[in-house]
Predict the structure of ComF family protein.
Amino acid sequence: MDVKWIDGVLRMIYPQVCEVCGRSLCRGEDVMCLHCLRQLPRVSSNGDDFNLLHERLASTVAIERAAGYFHYYKESPYVKLIHQAKYSSRPVVARKIARRFARELSRDGFFDGIDMIVPVPLHRWKLMRRGYNQSDYIARGIADVTGLEVSHSLVASRGHATQTARNSYQRWVNAGSVYELRDGASVAGRHVLVVDDVITTGATLLACCEAIHRVEPSARLSVLALGVAHLS
Ligand SMILES: [Zn+2]
């Protein structure tokens, strides 16, 4: 059956809109209109942005590569891209954005030598409440492009209070002990890409990397997030 024809009919019945500005999408546009895509406040992969990202993450664990797609701050309309995925039961948005980012990174060789993707896990209670893990959808989006395996060997071993009201130190302490690697052998000697929706202080991603290294120090680690928050 002609997939393009079906897509055309579906678009007539359910017009797709830009997740950022709400304008109807034209053929060839996906998730964002071309205008919003051009204005995306991108994190550059070199210079100050990269140093900031790497600094936040590489102080206690050896992180080989770090990538973030766009700057994430409260007043920005682009936070909707994350909020749709996280709070509005539309994780497919995160998957599609991850695909777009992965295609770009792929061209630059970012995934060369990486063996597997590990999403930052949600505790099972939170997973039950939300129904999905948005980071898992980001991992799947990257896998759609790269063909890399998505591993769920990292688990959140106990729940913790929402992090939004906590300061950096509390976040660090709070996130530090909740992640647990269940199958060390699966990451032994392998290059693991840990993915999250947003990097704020970097504490969550670091806690995940530390949890992997605690069990399997031979694992090599890189990280990726869609949003990179400004620190106040
Ligand atoms: Zn738009």
Remarks:
- The longest strand covers residues 220-229.
- The mean pLDDT is 85.
- DSSP finds nine helices and seven strands in the chain.
- Residues 172 and 229 are 16 Å apart (CA to CA).
